[in-house]
Amino acid sequence: MDITLTDLEEAINYWRSVRPSTGEERALSREVNALATVYALMIYHRSRAVRLDEMDETARQLVIAWRAGRI
Q: Given 3, 39, 57, 61, which residue has the most CB atoms within 10 angstroms?
């Protein structure tokens, strides 16, 4: 299954609402940081989509949880 850049943006926004930035430095949550890494690599490589099974386990589970919450 492929995850598009738009899907990933939606997943990041979902996790930002569930786990907002904290502290004076507004640090990203562990969840948002994991997805932001995938997003940054997609931008860098100019990828339109990435296979779910190519993501690291943390990012994959976050996307699966986000998708489950949309249904």
A: 3
